Amino acid sequence: MPGKPPAKPARASRPAKPLRDAKPPRDHGGNVAESRSVAPAAAAPERPLIARTGERPPERVPVILESLGAGDFHLIDSGNGLKLEQYGPYRIVRPEAQALWPPSLAAHIWDNADAIFTGDTDEDGMGRWRFPREALGETWPLQLLGVDFLGRFTAFRHVGVFPEQIVHWAWMKEQVEAAQRPLKVLNLFGYTGVASLVAAAAGAEVTHVDASKKAIGWARENQALGRMEKMPIRWICEDAMKFILREERRGNKYDIILTDPPKFGRGPNGEVWHLFEHLPLMLDICREILSPKALGLVLTAYSIRASFYSIHELMRETMRGAGGAVESGELVIREAGLDGRTPGRALSTSLFSRWVPK
After folding, report:
1. Is the pLDDT of residue 103 over 70?
2. Closest residue by Cα to residue 185 from 221, 231, 216
3. Helix, strand, coil % (nearest 5) of the chain?
4. pLDDT, tens digit (0-9, with 9 covering 90-100), for 283-330
5. Does residue 62 have a cis peptide bond before it, meaning omega lies within 30 degrees of 0?
6. Residue 150 forms beta bridges with which residues?
7. What are the angstrom distances between the C-alpha of 315 and each of 54, 253, 294, 303, 355?
8. Residue 78 φ/ψ, nearest 5 degrees
9. Distance from C-alpha of 154 to C-alpha of 162, rounded to nearest angstrom
10. What gap in Å lies between CA 31 and CA 24, rounded to an integer?
11. CB–CB of 75/347 below 8 Å?
């Protein structure tokens, strides 16, 4: 390896654990998310699970969905617990606990980054951005899959988009464009709305749900940036479980459901979300609000100490008698070098499970 490996960022003092509407844990690489919607506490479930019958859908495992980058993003290099990424005009260094190997590129390339996140590397760690070359604004324009949105430097190391999800968004875009009929897409825990904008631009009617007013505000900013105000998107600022329970009671249906829940969180009214406790009911309700001609139910799971088989088998049980197939595995981003076209090592980002009708 040429040059001296870049040093890890300095560790900041650890703050108190954030509440749900602060910013809870996000991914199994040590990242934390902006505010995410949560479910009611498990002590009083809203309804029992439905007893499913019929055959479990056939399985496709393991499935590795890989991205080399897209639009204004690619992973340049990784190593020593860090990752070097390209987001539009900026090179950014952030912590990445799963990058156990040494970097491939020389230290001076890392040192030439525009922004470096320094702070607590634990899941709930806050920190700050350091700008070695010049001070940068809070936001800057980016594009993925033809959709414009704002990158954003946050106190929890994130930049307003999770690019590993590009493989799910590209799949969704293809389904919407090929359907030859109006599709309804539900985006649960929708964050800053990039997936919702991709679906709407492809021709879908979209319902975007997140409990964070801040996240909804950012999503609307992204919509305005792309001049997509007239697109059919409902922005719902509400607890995700409460919303889907109400949709079930009303008999509303969706053709594609994306759900991206956190591992743990607390809400402003004392609501508690534990992924392992609440996920079965959440998926059970999602099954009930899938349309008769649904095209997919997509689950992404971050920051859990589990195999993808745990959510895979849960999805198969949930979809008993529905036919189709369940495909599960990992989302990975492959290093693409300085030019964005030179494949390197694969960095795992999350687990996923996806039911499709065929």
Report:
1. yes
2. 231
3. 20, 30, 50
4. 999 999 999 999 999 999 987 788 999 999 999 999 999 999 999 999
5. yes
6. 141
7. 14, 19, 15, 18, 7
8. -155, 160
9. 13
10. 9
11. yes
Sheet holding 90-95, edge to edge: 73-79, 82-87, 90-95, 115-119, 127-130
Torsion sign (Cα): 337, 341, 344, 347:
positive
Rounded Cα gap, residues 3 and 339, in angstroms: 19
pLDDT at 14 over 70: no
pTM comes to: 0.87
pLDDT band at 24 (very low <50, low <70, confident <90, very high): very low
d(CA 200, CA 195): 9
pLDDT exceeds 70 at position 270? no
Residue reference for tokens 């806050």? 126
Are 323 and 286 spatial neighbours (Cβ–Cβ below 8 Å)? no
Residue 197 pLDDT > 70, yes or no? yes
